[in-house]
Design brief:
heterotrimer, A mainly alpha, B mainly alpha, C mainly alpha, A: mainly alpha, C: elongated
Chain lengths: 341, 118, 203
């Protein structure tokens, strides 16, 4: 009995590590590709010294960050100061527990998966607020305030956009949401829920504090925002959390609006058979990679928003727009309009 | 149902533990030589003047309060959206009235200018 | 299932411990964070009772929204003066009266509104649900039909809360208005003019 339970626990741990370790490697290489991609967009080469074509650069960064001194400012609340990065990272990682990678490939196939994800995203704000407060530094405090108000503003639009997906699929379970989109490329939800997809994606960029919404950091005004006092391993945790959230948003966009692991050639006579050998997870990763690239592209293209513009976009544009569209979706679902509902 | 949540619980615990590793490495392996300049709060090279924790704009509270209200609205929408296909007409009208009430509130705060950031 | 009992007692212990810390810890921000921990542990207990939706909504609404507001409020207020001494500074002989009152309330709780009066004991504890049991759908089917009045009342309450929040916290305009729509619409050609110059001409 006890050994059986321990065995179950060990098996769960193995599965979790099978998600976590690749995730960390992907995060490390995302930072590398970010520098490379933006480099080429700005007609530079980007990092190319460590290893062939700079391919070992992320590992050099990791070791350098881990081996640096963790500075704890004299005025800070020591315990909370060190707790904040952990609180930022834990929900960003825990959200991955309910992500399905293929029809059968999911760690925790919970019924309320979408709700769990929203709850985990809403916890990310604690790491930032506590970091800003515990640092006892003006820039950190300002950055934390800005960031938390921005995150909670965009969370509403994000939640309403998710409601639209929920209505269309009729389930909170992520696997069922993806399966409800099967058919062909046009039956994925990006088409019937197009405004919701756009809002979800932009809100996702704002939630992760990425450019053009990175007012939390805004290095030209408040130096680095909430993590100005952090160094070494503690800073690395914030970095990890930010990138884990970015990848999460990309994967979620692919799952909720772009058919997840479903092949884009589904329903097309010849091509469907020709590409039937490709495993579903490859499609999911490919779709997510496109959105990761969008993150970098946005960063290389757009200047930073001003704070009043950010708040205006969240409250006065996204909330009315998403509300209007979910009313349309509700009517369409009730009347059974089109091939989607 | 519970067996589905066990991995989630383990994942959360592991996520918290995962965060401890870099901090642990940082305190054990990395150098630790603080001096008074290094650990003073960063303020662009100046001596920090006045306290870093100050009273901030009341607007941030307003945003937080409005967020709670809209978050609750979204929470009420979740079960409704799940059963939208099967719910009796009464349930549809209930949500219409609920939505109208919140729309009135939203229009009020918009007209009042509470959503403006200057 | 011993593992489940172990998880329950862990969550319950954490909830009680953090609830105690909320009222005894000296730093107000820490008190709020312990309250967060209490909510999270309570959500765990609810989840063990298979109230999936409520447990996650507790985290989403209370931890994710209400406690953020609490943190804002506590961070703004200056508590440095009030945090010098521990909670025992309130220790007075008159506290015996409080202890007596508390005991009386506990007595009343058990005799007047205890489990017996509500005949909870007469019902068997619900059987464990299967892996695909979906309480969100069950809630949805009753909340908007059988309990429609309570649902509408909640809507009214939210409206009142919204109006109250604005009338309490909103102080009106303070600066001249900007028109962000115009600012966003600005084209590069409105702001900058590129002039062709031959490379030979200097200055």
């Amino acid at each position: 009995m006890i050994t059986e339970q321990l065995f179950t626990l060990a098996w769960i741990l193995v599965k979790i590590l099978a998600i976590l370790l690749p995730l960390v490697v992907v995060i490390a290489y995302t930072t590398f590709f970010e520098r490379k991609v933006i480099g080429y967009m700005q007609v530079r080469i980007g990092p190319n010294r460590v290893g062939p074509r700079g391919f070992l650069q992320p590992w050099a960064d990791v070791f350098k960050l881990l081996l640096k001194e963790i500075i704890v400012p004299s005025a800070s609340n020591r315990f909370l100061f060190l707790l904040a990065p952990i609180l930022a990272l834990a929900p960003a990682l825990a959200a991955w527990a309910v992500i399905p990678f293929d029809q059968q490939l999911v760690l925790a196939n919970v019924n309320a998966g979408l709700l769990f994800l929203l709850a985990m995203t809403s916890l990310g704000v604690y790491g930032i607020v506590i970091a800003g407060w515990a640092s006892n530094s003006k820039y950190a405090f300002l950055g934390a305030l800005r960031s938390s108000a921005q995150i909670i503003s965009y969370e509403i639009a994000m939640g309403i956009a998710l409601i639209g997906v929920l209505m269309a699929a009729g389930s909170l379970n992520l696997t069922e949401i993806v399966m409800a989109q099967s058919g062909n490329l046009l039956s994925w939800y990006w088409l019937p829920l197009f405004p919701l997809f756009v809002v979800y994606w932009i809100a996702g960029v704002a939630e992760t504090n990425r450019l053009p919404f990175d007012l939390a950091e805004g290095e030209s005004e408040i130096v680095a925002g909430f993590h100005v006092e952090y160094a070494g391993g503690a800073f690395a945790l914030f970095f990890l959390a930010e990138y884990a959230n970015m990848i999460l948003i990309s994967v979620l966009t692919a799952l909720l609006f772009f058919g997840g692991w479903l092949s884009p050639f589904q329903g097309i006579p010849v091509l469907e058979e020709a590409f039937a050998w490709v495993p579903g997870i490859a499609w999911l990763l490919l779709k997510s990679a496109c959105f990761m690239f969008m993150y970098l592209w946005l960063r290389a293209t757009f200047p930073r928003y001003r704070y009043d513009q950010v708040m205006r976009l969240g409250w006065k544009v996204f909330i009315p727009l998403t509300t209007f569209w979910i009313i349309l979706v509700a009517v369409a679902v009730r009347l059974g309009v089109g091939p989607w509902f | 149902m519970l067996e589905n949540y066990l991995p989630v619980l383990v994942f959360i615990a592991l996520g918290l533990a995962f965060g401890l590793v870099p901090l642990f490495i940082g305190f054990v392996i990395a150098p630790h030589r603080p001096d008074s300049e290094k650990i003073s709060p960063y303020e662009c090279g100046f001596e920090p003047f006045e306290a870093a924790r100050f009273k901030f704009d009341v607007r941030f509270y307003l945003v937080a309060i409005l967020f709670i209200i809209f978050d609750l609205e979204v929470a009420f929408l979740f079960p409704w959206a799940v059963v939208l296909r099967d719910i009796p007409v009464l349930g549809i009208w209930a949500m219409v009235i609920f939505g109208l009430l919140l729309a009135i509130g939203f229009i009020y705060e918009w007209r009042k200018g509470a959503l403006e950031w200057e | 299932m011993t593992g489940q009992a172990l998880i329950f007692y862990t969550f319950a212990a954490v909830a009680i411990f953090s609830a105690l810390m909320v009222i005894t810890v000296q730093n107000a921000v820490r008190a709020v964070l312990f309250l967060v921990l209490a909510f999270v542990a309570t959500a765990g207990v609810w989840l063990l009772m298979e109230a999936e939706f409520l447990a996650i909504i507790l985290v989403l609404v209370y931890v994710g929204a209400v406690m953020v507001l609490f943190l804002f409020v506590v961070m703004m207020l200056d508590f440095t003066g009030a945090t010098q001494k521990g909670p025992l500074r309130y220790l007075r002989p008159s506290m015996l009266l409080g202890v007596g009152l508390a005991l009386g309330v506990v007595f009343l709780l058990f005799t007047v509104i205890g489990p017996k009066q509500f005949t909870i004991m007469d019902y068997p504890s619900p059987a464990a649900r299967g892996a695909d049991y979906n309480d969100v759908a069950h809630l949805g089917m009753v909340m908007y039909t059988d309990y429609v009045l309570a649902f509408i009342a909640a809507g009214c309450l939210l409206l009142v809360a919204m109006v109250a929040a604005i009338s309490l916290a909103y102080r009106g305009h303070r600066a001249k208005r900007q028109r962000p729509s115009d600012q966003v619409k600005v084209k590069a050609s409105d702001r900058i003019r590129l002039v062709k110059m031959s490379p030979g001409s200097r200055g």
